[in-house]
Design brief:
The chain has 436 residues and is of the alpha/beta class. The protein has 2 domains: 253 residues, 3-Layer(aba) Sandwich (Rossmann fold); 162 residues, Rossmann fold (3-Layer(aba) Sandwich), CATH 3.40.50.2000. α6 runs parallel beside α7 and α12 crosses α17.
């Protein structure tokens, strides 16, 4: 069968789709990856075939075009404190809050990061190439529109917690309690117009919830940490992919003391360009601990710092999949790739979550599972972070909990293992092919 992957145009989102794309291609299926030109090199460096669609995204500019004030508000997190899509506490998910979230995120994020030209190009390509399955990123709705236009089956491939699934279930339930004339769904309104523009109207062709949540969801988050969503879900073992890399000789040298990794990731810097946790504060917290710290810091971060503590090794990039097996703990920003790679290797975590998508609820669920301690950036002090790191290192319960989750992940089907499942689901969901 032909499988079209459709990631959000950021390197970390491409990386989340590579292992499954490899598995399907190794099983003999045709695979292509379509998204904006920004990440074509990331796709081809993974050995996959890229299909550029639309204009370059330039994510930071698209998040808040032509509005310097809004850029600053986004960076500072002011508006997120009011309309945070990562707010999952049941008592906070009022109809008013949910309406505000979708009313804000639809024009600010979705319409800006999935512009008309990109959707039009993807639909045209899909109608020509005729994929059997479209695997799309939950951050971009071009994929399901292209699937609907070409008759393909389609599924979301998650990179983190299923916020959209949870919020949509709550939101649709709230709308159903209103009279039809008062049901205002910004996401439905936008996608409905997109479908009409491509001649997709009427029963089975116009808007339905499958356009938002997929026909099923491929989820690498361990079931024990996933959000309580009732949508069809296919668990998938997380297989780390860090991009092309090489292993530095020092990684193979035996550490003289316990090693910890400190990383703020790249995804938040790519989108907004500002760390929400002070690098200096993080380094001060570990400076006097009897540990070896491997800190992933770029040139911009290093330039703002003075001399590094003697127990800190700064590296611009190191593949986490190679580094974390040697670590006793990891300090990070809550990003999906770092979080899941640490779980895959059974490494306890200290999370200072940036206020971006599901980083905060992910950190809270890890804390509740006993695999992590967490503190929001605005409450972080060197003393508080030092206490959390010391506790995670010295309390064996964190290592035991991390080992339990790792065992759960090892019992989940691999990307290669779910290929037969996908083949059956495609047969059940793909629109009948027309002949002649």
């Amino acid at each position: 069968m032909r499988v079209l992957f459709q990631p959000f145009a950021a390197a970390t989102h491409v990386a989340a789709q590579v292992p499954l794309a490899w598995a399907l291609r190794a099983a003999g299926h045709e695979v292509r990856v379509a998204t904006q030109p920004d990440v074509v090199e990331d796709i081809t460096r993974a050995g996959l075939t890229a299909v550029p669609v639309g204009e370059p995204l330039h994510v930071a500019a698209k998040m808040a075009p032509d509005d310097a004030r809004l850029v600053e508000e986004l960076r500072d997190g002011a508006w997120l404190r009011v309309l945070d899509p990562g707010e999952v506490r049941p008592e906070r998910l009022t109809p008013e809050h949910l309406q505000g979230v979708f009313a804000a995120w639809t024009p600010l994020v979705h319409r800006n990061t999935v512009p008309d030209r990109m959707i039009d190009d993807l639909v045209a390509f899909s109608r020509d190439w005729r994929p059997d399955l479209v695997v799309w990123d939950t951050m971009t709705y071009a994929g399901p529109v292209a699937a609907r236009a070409s008759g393909a089956a389609h599924a979301r491939l998650m990179f983190g917690l299923d916020l959209v699934g949870l919020l949509r279930e709550r939101y649709r339930a709230a709308l159903d309690r209103l009279p039809p004339e008062l049901r205002d769904d910004p996401l439905e309104e936008w996608l409905g117009h997109v479908l009409e523009r491509h001649g997709l109207e009427g029963p089975g062709r116009g808007f339905d919830e499958e356009l938002v949540v997929g026909q099923w969801t491929l989820d690498p988050v361990p079931t024990s940490l996933a959000l309580p969503v009732s949508l069809p879900r296919v668990p998938l073992r997380y297989v780390p992919y860090n991009g092309p890399s090489s292993v530095s000789p020092w990684l193979d040298e035996p550490a003289g003391r316990r090693r910890i990794c400190l990383t703020l990731g790249v995804s938040f810097r790519e989108v907004v360009g500002k760390d929400q946790a002070s690098v200096g504060e993080l380094l001060a917290a570990v400076a006097d601990l009897d540990v070896e710290v491997v800190a992933t810091l770029d040139a911009g971060q290093l330039a703002a710092l003075g001399p590094l503590p003697p127990n800190v090794r700064a590296v611009d990039f190191v593949p986490l999949n190679e580094l974390l097996p040697s670590c006793a703990a990891v300090i990070h920003h809550g990003g999906a790739g770092t979080f899941l790679t640490a779980l895959a290797h059974g490494v306890p975590q200290v999370v200072v979550p940036s206020r971006m998508w599901c980083n905060t609820p992910r950190a809270e669920r890890a804390r509740a599972a006993g695999v992590a301690l967490t503190c929001p950036p605005e409450r972080l002090t060197a003393g508080r972070l030092r206490a959390m790191v010391t506790r995670v290192l010295d309390d064996p319960s964190f290592a035991r909990a991390a080992a339990r989750v790792r065992t759960e992940m090892l019992g989940t089907p691999t990307p290669a293992g779910i290929v037969p499942v996908l083949e059956r689901l495609v047969t059940a969901h793909r629109a009948p092919r027309r002949t002649g």
